[in-house]
DNA sequence: AGGCGCGAGGAAAAGGCTTTCCTTGTAGCC
DNA sequence: GGCTACAAGGAAAGCCTTTTCCTCGCGCCT
């Protein structure tokens, strides 16, 4: 690869001059030299070595984000918002998929630190795991102690700024909707127990239940992987255990889609026989049949705010912002069948 | 941030020793020093500066991939395959979203070159744009000239190794299916004209049409954005212009889902009134109603092969591999309504 | 005892760039 | 003419690691 020095030699100038021209420094250089240098750059197809630049410059210009999986629509939206703001502020974004493996999450924090990122954004559910939380906080604190900025979305008890999606409240809204419609036998298709998102959303559902003098007995809560197939598996189990179920609350839309698939397979109509509700309002939610009644989280905005917090040098670190949830009425929720 | 020198000072050893211990070099160091150094590393929360390492080491260990958008299922799958192989071979992957903007694609090639990546993988449709193709090839050649490896998926006329999805053949398969079912008035919901993927898939459809002594007149081909909303718009236009349509071939599943939405809105049943077929077999294809008849491309494998080619140092660069397409029968294709 | 080899650790260069501080040359002034 | 002041370009010092090449000391052999 051609280096700065190669260009300088070819143009017959010093490395300093080339650097100034290539980076558009304010220092004035004569038209003639500029031209010679630019020509040499062209001829040698010179591209500055980003690592050397990073080493030589003092200011950082990359931020890292750790998500479960960017191709999951939930995180795709958050990332979109994040990228937009990053782009506006001239920052590059490094995306890391943790696949919900705490170990890997820890590794990625180190990796991002090694990459000298200006800020780390952690998105996605936390874990009920004190040892992990402690380890994570230790790593993040060390990073913050050296000027790194941290911002998390939807995590309790982690150092740094935070944007908190209204998981509890969103679930409460949708729970109210279900109970108000008259359902008494409600099953919950839940994500793994150790995710804080699960706990939060279940809490919202429970609050709604209490308000309607109903309960959500443990035997009607089935935990499974937080995706389409998990939703299908949990629904099948639920249906087998409780044939009288008239409504299923899935803890996200992917799981709801899995539920829909099982219901269809078993010849149960939705919402005629069984109602189904989701969570997150991912784009596909309106295109399945029946279209999903769900809760929308302003994901793009959440991502944008998370990075904005991290990049705002004014305020010292721990600030918490809330993100509202809104109900989206579609067709998958109706009154219970009158049996 | 703590540096190697800080650790060395604290442990009372030289920088060389610290480096050797931290990197597990084969050189032997006494237990005592090792312990002192490791303790200092802990205390200072030292993490090596990745950029300095890159500068100092000779071998590269990152690869870059340029896709339209990782959160698009098509590219998500390709990326998954790619990441798997990259992980196995100890490589890090930098993902760049071009959002189908040729300009941005060019910029990303430069950026990846600046990052000193070992290989660049370019995935996604090419463009019918000689100026762009020339510029891209110039950049890639410059990169390859300095030892960079390039591998593309689904691009004609680009330097480097290639994996070619069977776009033409897949479309041929599905076209045959449509015409064999007896459809005479077939509309095509197509992606933008300047994408080579569009041309290839249309060619396959046309070949099937010729075989059945049918034609695909231009007025029954509607071009739109390569996504759900584009599919909806094109379908609406097609239906307005040709109410007698009995089948719609969408050039990918997202567009097919948009078509399904419009059809449902207009009270047309699928496949009773109008049949719909997609392309790509993205995961959601089986969960919409009716489940999509489509063509499957082995996307994960395509990604894996693309990076495997790039990382294989044996062979010199231009090798071309083909990836087969297979038909997936589901419910969205039926015989034409007998009107 | 002298020489050799070897093992453990350190010194220093290299890697590519930015940026501060200098040098040099020229214009402008008295 | 001699001086200052300023503009343009260059020299060189970092930035942080890795790695090659040394050095030093010790044990062993003859």
Outline the structure in words.
2 copies of one chain form a homodimer. In chain A, helix 6 packs parallel to helix 7 (130-145). The longest helix of chain A is centred in the N-terminal third of the chain and has 16 residues, at 73-88. Chain A starts with a helix and ends in an 11-residue tail after the last strand. Helices cover 45% and strands 15% of the residues of chain A. Chain A is of the alpha/beta class and 339 residues long. The first copy, chain A, has helices at residues 4-11, 15-23, 31-44, 50-56, 73-88, 102-114, 130-145, 167-180, 196-211, 228-241, 253-265, 299-311; strands at residues 62-67, 92-97, 119-123, 149-153, 161-165, 186-190, 221-223, 247-250, 275-277, 294-296, 320-323, 326-328. Chain A has 3 domains: 4-56, lambda repressor-like DNA-binding domains (434 Repressor (Amino-terminal Domain)), CATH 1.10.260.40; 62-165 and 300-323, Response regulator (Rossmann fold); 167-297, 3-Layer(aba) Sandwich (Rossmann fold), CATH 3.40.50. The model of chain A has no long low-confidence stretch (mean pLDDT 95). Chain A binds a DNA duplex (30 and 30 nucleotides) through helix 2 and helix 4. Chains A, B: Pfam families: LacI (PF00356), Peripla_BP_3 (PF13377).
């Amino acid at each position: 690869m051609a280096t700065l020095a190669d260009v300088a030699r070819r143009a017959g100038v010093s490395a300093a001059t080339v650097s100034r021209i290539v980076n558009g420094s304010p220092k004035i250089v004569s038209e003639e030299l500029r031209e010679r240098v630019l020509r040499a750059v062209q001829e040698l197809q010179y591209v500055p070595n980003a690592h050397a630049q990073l080493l030589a410059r003092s200011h950082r210009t990359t931020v890292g984000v750790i998500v479960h999986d960017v191709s999951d629509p939930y995180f795709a939206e958050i990332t979109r918002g994040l990228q937009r703001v990053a782009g506006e502020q001239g920052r590059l974004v490094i995306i890391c998929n943790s696949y919900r493996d705490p170990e890997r999450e820890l590794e990625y924090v180190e990796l991002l630190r090694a990459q000298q990122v200006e800020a780390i954004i952690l998105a996605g559910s936390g874990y009920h795991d004190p040892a992990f939380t402690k380890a994570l906080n230790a790593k993040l604190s060390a990073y913050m102690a050296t000027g790194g900025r941290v911002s998390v979305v939807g995590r309790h008890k982690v150092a740094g700024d935070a944007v908190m999606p209204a998981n509890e409240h969103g679930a409460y809204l949708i729970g109210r909707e279900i109970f108000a419609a008259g359902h008494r036998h409600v099953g919950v298709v839940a994500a793994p127990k150790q995710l804080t998102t699960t706990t939060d959303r279940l809490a919202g559902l429970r609050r709604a239940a209490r308000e309607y003098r109903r309960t959500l007995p443990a035997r009607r809560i089935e935990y499974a992987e937080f995706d389409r197939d998990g939703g299908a598996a949990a629904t099948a189990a639920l249906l087998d255990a409780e044939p009288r179920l008239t409504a299923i609350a899935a803890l996200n839309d992917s799981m709801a889609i899995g539920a829909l698939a099982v219901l269809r397979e078993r010849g149960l109509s939705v919402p005629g026989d069984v109602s189904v509700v989701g969570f997150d309002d991912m784009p596909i939610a309106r295109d399945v049949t029946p279209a999903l009644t769900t809760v929308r989280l302003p994901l793009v905005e959440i991502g944008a705010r998370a990075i904005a917090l991290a990049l705002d040098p004014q305020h010292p670190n721990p600030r918490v912002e809330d993100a509202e949830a809104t109900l989206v009425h579609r067709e998958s929720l109706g009154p219970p069948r009158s049996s």
